[in-house]
Design brief:
With about 325 residues, the protein is of the alpha+beta class. The chain has two domains: about 190 residues, 3-Layer(aba) Sandwich (Chemotaxis protein chec); about 70 residues, Surface presentation of antigens (SPOA). About 35% of the residues lie in helices and about 25% in strands. It has eight helices and ten strands. The protein has a six-stranded antiparallel sheet with strand order 1-5-6-3-2-4. It has a four-stranded antiparallel sheet with strand order 7-8-9-10, with no helix packed on it. Helix 1 crosses helix 4 and helix 1 packs across helix 5. It is elongated and about 105 Å long. About 25% of the residues are buried.
């Protein structure tokens, strides 16, 4: 069974957009709220990583987020090409490991750029030498620093580079059945393009993602919110409001309205014993009768008339 979805989603499509089989034995754990929080962090990482790559390689580079999905670790590993450049890293203080993977030729081209080359030549399809690994580790350390900053609003991390592999089956960052969150990126260095993935264990991040999606306010924050509510309520009672006292509305034809002249009498059709309406912004909120106070006209508030009797008086009029 296939199920299409739009945009970055926890499941339903492969990273390249093709429909994939939905396994009901492994229900979706990554909610849309989780995806929204992750998307903000991953997009920030992509922007900062683009700056790091461009600066360190001295070449045009880009990293653009394509989507975020949920997979089992086995399914993710199966989707990787062999060979592939795969860097694993710890997630202290969280348990588990993360994975950053991208095409081997792009990893080799990055080394070529950092050594002063153009990166345009055909790149070797082999594991890196000790020197190439040392150069690449310097780049990865910078990228992990940006990863830490991008995820700071979710959880404080201290990631450290763990290992580099080239065979996906040897990159043991999680158990095969573990649920992982896979963020896929379009990566480009010069004319070379490919797909990069940043993989994080769902179980390690679940609590932090839930807190970030629905943050729990501290006592000081709750007290500040209460004071703001009380101040707002107090000020609202002091806001000046235009109030009117009026007779029941009357409908007249436009011809009669335009023909009115000084001395004409306009029949209001308001019953003598019916109270007047006290209104604000065309909303009736009380009723009153005409009165006077210290040689001024006034309106004395009276009980609200029964709806049925009030309407019958209007209808009779």
């Amino acid at each position: 069974m296939t199920r299409p979805e739009n945009g970055p989603a926890p499941s339903g499509r492969s990273r390249r957009g093709e429909p994939r089989t939905y396994d009901f034995r492994r229900p979706t754990k990554l909610s849309r709220e989780h995806v929204r929080v992750l998307q903000i962090a991953q997009e920030a990482f992509a922007r900062q990583a683009t700056t790091v790559l461009t600066t360190m390689l001295r070449a045009g580079a880009r990293l653009e987020l394509l989507g975020i999905e949920q997979h089992s670790y086995d399914d993710y590993v199966t989707s990787l090409p062999d060979p592939c450049f795969i860097a694993t890293f710890t997630l202290e203080p969280l348990a588990g490991k993360g994975v950053l993977a991208y095409p081997l030729d792009i990893a080799m081209a990055a080394v070529d750029h950092m050594l002063g080359g153009s990166g345009a030549a055909d790149q070797p399809d082999r594991p890196m030498t000790v020197m190439e690994t040392a150069i690449t580790n310097h780049l990865l350390t910078r990228l992990l620093s940006e990863f830490t900053a991008s995820f700071a609003h979710i959880v404080e991390l201290q990631p450290e580079l763990s290992d580099v592999e080239y065979n996906p089956q040897l990159a043991q960052a999680a158990s095969g059945s573990d649920t992982v969150m896979v963020a896929s990126f379009d990566i480009g260095i010069g004319p070379r393009t490919g797909e990069a993935t940043l993989v994080l264990p769902f179980s390690s991040f679940q609590g932090a993602l839930s807190n970030a999606a629905s943050p729990t306010l501290s006592e000081s924050a709750q007290a500040k919110r209460r004071r703001a509510f009380e101040a707002l309520s107090e000020r609202l009672t002091e806001v000046p409001v235009d109030v009117g006292v009026r007779f029941a509305s009357l409908e007249v034809s436009s011809e009669d309205l335009l023909s009115l002249a000084v001395g004409d009498v306009l029949l209001l059709r308001h019953p003598q014993d019916a109270p007047l309406e006290v209104t604000t912004n065309d909303v009736t909120f009380a009723y009153a009768i005409a009165s006077n106070h210290r040689r001024r006209l006034a309106a004395a508030i009276v009980p609200t008339p029964a709806t049925s009797s009030h309407r019958s008086q209007k209808d009779t009029a």
